[in-house]
Amino acid sequence: MISSRLRPALAHLGDALAYFLVRVIVAVIQVLPLDMGNSLCRGLAWLLTGPLPVRAKATDHNLNLIFPNATAQQRLQLKKAMWHHLLLMVCEIAWAQRRLHLTNWHRHVTFRENETMLGYMLGPRPTVLVTGHFGNFEIGGYVSGLMGVSTLTIARRLDNAYLHRWVERFRSAKGQHMVDKEGCAQMVDAHLRAGGILSLLADQHAGDKGCWVDFMGAPASCHKALSLFSLSSDAPMLVVSTQRIGGKPMQFEVNCYGIADPLSGGEECSGVPAMTKWYNERLAAAVAEAPEQYWWLHRRWRKPPARVAKRLAKAAASA
């Protein structure tokens, strides 16, 4: 039996070893040429979908739910492409610190709707940027900071304190400020009152008491706070993504899929359910462009409570 005094020390040592291993792997990735890193990711993706399956149950559940008419082979190919994307995403985060700079960003990043986005992001009003576990959202935050756009991002603290500090240093390197989701409401409100930009991942499961809406054809629970941040501060909500293009590493397109402005009086801003439904529809449109770049291993869809399932079924029948 391990004594209660020794257990924290062993946990501390385990975190330190995990951090050391991650830093060694990142150091190796940073010196790899882009094409070699891309090929390595393809090989590892084959391993993770075949001989050494990881999170296969959750991934299969999501793909079967969202693509019920796809063949087993099609779902397998999508799963493999997803793993290639996720592994390449890790490589791109490691490469960004050495290869993505203020003087060369235009070689790696293009924009759709850039004038519209910058008009809101550089204007005097507060702005809420919404994205999901799609594309390389970490690069999106890095690039916005690189271009002088400072944002506040809500994120859960990692259990490993060493890894948390390291990831936070990367995210904050160019002006992205991180706050823990626990007890952050007052800080976020003050940030928006000052005309700041809030950046959020919108596809986090919010539990039974969340706002349940349709997401890609299946019920999903969403945090009400996202819409409340926008509606309570009259902050326009922009649904954005940073999508890899051309099948090449370190080549991205930043796009805006819609804007909901509470001051415009649109139907999408009539309340929390309407805005939540609106941004989920826009996120679904983004994922439809490159479904292999979505985190299908993410436990996004859960079984709704009976009363919610009944309400959603009734709404679907009347639509």
TrEMBL record:
Per the record, its GO cellular-component terms are: plasma membrane
Which Pfam family, any one, appears in the UniProt record?
Lip_A_acyltrans
Organism the protein comes from: Rubripirellula amarantea
Stated name of the protein: Lipid A biosynthesis lauroyl acyltransferase
Class of this enzyme: transferase
Gene this chain is encoded by:
htrB
Listed EC numbers: 2.3.1.-
**Does Coiled coil appear among the keywords?**
no
Q: Which GO terms describe its biological process?
A: glycolipid biosynthetic process
Q: Which PANTHER family match?
A: LIPID A BIOSYNTHESIS LAUROYL ACYLTRANSFERASE, PHOSPHATIDYLINOSITOL MANNOSIDE ACYLTRANSFERASE
Could you list this entry's UniProt keywords, alphabetically sorted.
Answer: Acyltransferase, Cell inner membrane, Cell membrane, Membrane, Transferase
Supply the InterPro entries for this chain.
Answer: LipA_acyltrans (IPR004960)
Q: Does the keyword Acyltransferase apply?
A: yes
Q: Name one GO molecular function term.
A: acyltransferase activity
